[in-house]
Amino acid sequence: MLPPDLNQKEDPRVKRTRSLLEQAFMDVLKEKGFQTITVQDITQRAGVNRATFYAHFDDKYDLLDHSIRQGFLLEIEKRMLNACHFSMDNLRNLIIAVCEYSKNINSHCKTPFAQFESLVETQVKDVMYELLLKWLEQMDVEVAPETAATAASWAIYGLAAQWGHSKQPKPVDEFAAEVLPLVATNLKLVQTI
Questions:
Q1: What angle (nearest 5°) sits at the alpha carbon of residue 128, between those of residues 110 and 73?
Q2: Domains of the chain, residue spans
Q3: Across the chain, which distance is largest between two alpha carbons, in Å?
Q4: Comparing C-alpha atoms, which of 187, 191, 4 is closest to residue 91?
Q5: Which of 5, 52, 176, 188 has its CA 20 to 30 Å from the CA of residue 41?
Q6: Which CATH number fits domain 7-57: 3.40.50.300, 1.10.132.30, 3.40.50.1970, 1.10.10.60?
Q7: pTM
Q8: Does an H or E element contain 71, and which?
């Protein structure tokens, strides 16, 4: 099952307040570096008080983690990968989603990506692991699904990071096609290529 974030039934007011805080955070992040953002900046932009902020998040780092995870979950949902089963095409689309999400995060904020790249990596790999595990549990694989999902999620993120750090990266579709066999090897599915 995919993370509860997408499936959870929440009070509409709670969802609305979280959404306001997330949007305010993203807006402020585009203007200021993460280190200089305060909870006051976020609450002021969202039009809520500090107590409301702390009812939803521990601090700005917790909000950052949440925003990264939710952003990537939306990328997965947009591509309908959370509703799919394993196929090489879906795996290729997952690679593209990771590349494009990382690229978009890097280009949409004033804070240098390197400052929170490890947070992005953790959240993206966690979501990928859960998705890959869901797919693998429906199949007969040569190794434990947990091991294969871990290896593949780490491989996909590492390859996407390398692509993103290139001075002149290949088009994302071309890159995904090139690395697909490497990722499939981690899943012990090479014979299905």
A1: 55
A2: 7-57, 60-192
A3: 56
A4: 187
A5: 5
A6: 1.10.10.60
A7: 0.80
A8: helix 60-78
d(CA 43, CA 46) in angstroms, rounded, equals 5
Name the class of domain 60-192: mainly alpha
| Number of H-type helices and E-type strands within the chain | 9, 0
Looking at residue 10, its amino acid is E
